[in-house]
Automatic annotation (TrEMBL):
InterPro entries: DctQ, TRAP_DctQ. Keywords: Cell inner membrane, Cell membrane, Membrane, Transmembrane, Transmembrane helix, Transport. One of its GO terms (molecular function) is transmembrane transporter activity. This is TRAP transporter small permease protein. The complex comprises the extracytoplasmic solute receptor protein and the two transmembrane proteins. It is a multi-pass membrane protein. GO terms for biological process: C4-dicarboxylate transport.
Amino acid sequence: MRYVDWLFRLFETILVALLACMVIMVFGNVVLRYGFNSGITVSEELSRFAFIWLAFLGTVVGMRDRAHLGADFLVSALPPLGRKICFVLCSMLIIWSCSLIFLGTIRGHSINMQNYSPVMGIPMEYVYASAYVLSIGIIALTAARLYQFARGRISNDDLFSAVDAEEALAIETPGPGRTAAKSEEKNQ
């Protein structure tokens, strides 16, 4: 297994742990508040911080898996050269945007190390450090795709692979009077 695969397995494990912690903290806090008239003091703040990390880390994992939703109706109408130009321009725009996120996080670093969360008392930079992971991860993934493109390892069809909502769900709901088996037979 390559190092990158191992790293993304670690990211996915962290995502699962963050989601599980959020669910346990919020559900536990609701039960304690309504059932026992008490609560976990740090539950709301910690679940919010976990959600921030979950969103930013999940964005990097989604970028690697190319799982983000997109609209490719304009790009699919372009000739092959237009697709290539559009791919390079979009990739450069992504790198530029993530560079701005990274530089903005660096500029706010000293300020955020001085700001402490109200309940837990930890520096807010630990929460906002997720922007470092987001920007570095997406820049690295986009640069790797640009490198593969420059080496000729990406076909024209793989330049833009927007995921349709139906493909993302991969669920076909049978119509009235049809069963799932009939729908499957019709597709074959």
